[in-house]
Amino acid sequence: MLLTKESLFKNNSSQCDNPPKGTNKETIQLTVVDSIVEMLKALEVRHAFGIGGGAIAPLWAALEQSTIQVLHFRHEAGAVFAAIEAYFANNSPVVVFTTTGPGITNALTGILSARCEGAKVILLSASTPAKLQGRCVVRETNIKTMPEEIFTPGTLFHYAKCIKSGDELPEIAHQLAVGLSRPGSFVAHITVPTDIQTSTGCNATVSKPLSPLLIPSKKITTKAVELLSCAPFAIWVGFGARDAAEEILQLAENTGVAVMSSPRGKGIFPENHPQFVGVTGFAGHQSVLEYMQSTPPERILVLGTRLGEFTSFWNPVMIPPKGFIHVDIDPFVSGAAYPTADTFPICAVIKPFLRVLLEKLPKKLTWSSVPSLSHPHLTPQNHQGSYDKQRQPDKDLVRPSVLMNTIQEVIVEGSDAIVIAEAGNSLAWTTHYLKFDQTRRWRVSTSFASMGHATTGVLGAALTSGSKAVAIVGDGAMLMNNEINTAVQYNIPVVWIVLNDACYNMCAQGLEKIGYSGVNTQFPPTDFVMFARSMGADGICVETESQLKTALSKAIHSKVPFVVDVKINPAQPAPIGTRLSSLITQYS
């Protein structure tokens, strides 16, 4: 078929057509990869992250020659993590591209994280031509040589397709448009055999379907209003409610009820608000449990959290006397974490549901005023506490709690930077100590919780948000997977704050507390400032608490990628006790 790229979406045909009479013989022949790129642009894809290779060369080149911004990463998993955070920063789907074989499998850790986190990511890859399958092709890639679920819908991908001809592109465009329009995550895989990439393309017109609002029926809404009107309730906010921050604030202030958040939901409801009682679950606040034990609400309105292990640890104290009203877009979420609790399930998009609820809920509720509320207070931390008698640190090293207090002052309150925390003790310290008063400034992965997510994802957050982004990470994660070199190449002035103690310290502290000793969790110390400067970034080493404020101020104002290498006191115990208790119960 002969079409100009300019006329690609002017033709509304749903299938490949012959060129119109009188078409100029010099018109550029549209290939499959040209069609794919135009389709992605119509789907509002603005960025593509990945690593190229010979098998994907035509598609790679087509992306480079388009208006889509292409960034080349150093590892495919890092590219997907960056894509996840790019999506959450601007709500536009992001493409990840890989070559055959290990290019695809390297990306799978990130792909699973994208699905768990609720991101919208499209993986583009190359595969082996049908005519060469079974002939020992280098990195032979097809459904017979790799796990089947890489190429079919299932636990990895919501939609997956191996293109056999350009005729399939209109249906692929439709499926992608439908998937991207739905609330929640959508992770797709389009693989294109090398020979098909340069074959004749097709007009893959994108008709954007209306996004379903998923508003519950009048009967369900009326019942929810009745339940919330007849007895005191509290609100439990999760990451899935991030688009409904204004409505949640209005509902809370209209009713005067207590609000708590999951670790991922920090900042959706202002943490400095007088009705905020604290963060639940992993590294959360004792004030939440005090509130539930002293003056528990009759019901809890759960908004956008699955109440899983990191959010609740399935603590029975968190079950209110009359149960939960659980609102989520996934109908299988309600009642899953607490199967014995009374749960009224509502399958809905939270923002429009709350708008209806605010209209219907009486201005004056029948139950009496809300009792005085507990407020978040931090777990006391001893400067000289130690988990390892053989490894007493220098008392002058930086206490992580002091580091967090300085980050709060300089970065959280002193800038508009997005803050991303890495899995491990970094997550515990930040969840417990940092406080946010607005949504979209805090990001963390608590479900898949892959190490290396924040060290690489921070690039995507900075690139698409237009603001500074800061990753708070452990030295183990920084050694596992980072994209300093990529940040330098594209001049993305992100900041990494590295908690450097030459140890997998969550493992070290946790193993000791649950009764295992003699397990090696240490590794040779690393000079991360030298590491950063070797690739063209900048950095500063912090060895004492008196140096913290100056170092963080320099980092947040740096025009180039910047690493703050903080020599922390490994003896200060992180607030991970609830996680350890949960693990112990799982061993039996």
Which helices and strands, and how do they pair?
Blueprint: H1 32-42, E1 47-50, H2 57-64, E2 69-72, H3 76-90, E3 94-98, H4 102-117, E4 120-127, E5 159-162, H5 169-181, E6 186-193, H6 194-197, H7 218-230, E7 233-237, H8 245-255, E8 259-261, E9 276-279, H9 286-294, E10 299-303, H10 309-312, E11 324-328, E12 343-347, H11 350-360, H12 400-412, E13 418-421, H13 425-433, E14 442-444, H14 453-465, E15 469-474, H15 475-480, H16 484-489, E16 495-500, H17 505-513, H18 528-533, E17 538-542, H19 548-556, E18 562-567, H20 577-587
Parallel strand pairs: 1-2, 1-3, 3-4, 4-6, 5-6, 7-8, 7-10, 8-9, 10-11, 11-12, 13-14, 13-15, 15-16, 16-18, 17-18
Helix pairs in contact: 1-2, 3-4, 3-14, 7-11, 8-11, 12-19
Describe the structure.
- The chain has 588 residues and is an alpha/beta fold.
- It contains 20 helices and 18 strands.
- The strands form three sheets. It has a six-stranded parallel β-sheet with strand order 2-1-3-4-6-5, sandwiched between helices. Strands 9-8-7-10-11-12 form a six-stranded parallel β-sheet. The chain has a six-stranded parallel β-sheet with strand order 14-13-15-16-18-17, sandwiched between helices.
- Helix 3 packs across helix 14 and helix 12 (400-412) runs parallel beside helix 19.
Which overall shape is indicated by the principal axes computed on the Cα atoms? globular
Number of domains: 3
CATH topology of the largest domain: Rossmann fold
Structural class estimated from helices and strands: alpha/beta
CATH architecture of the largest domain: 3-Layer(aba) Sandwich
State the helical fraction: 25-40%
Q: List segments where confidence is low: pLDDT < 50 over at least 5 consecutive residues.
A: 1-15, 17-26, 381-393
Characterize the largest beta sheet: strand count, sense, and whether it forms a barrel. 6 strands, parallel
| Largest beta sheet: strand ordering | 2-1-3-4-6-5
Q: Write down the Rg.
A: 26 Å
| CATH homologous superfamily title of the largest domain | Thiamin diphosphate (ThDP)-binding fold, Pyr/PP domains
CATH class of the largest domain: Alpha Beta
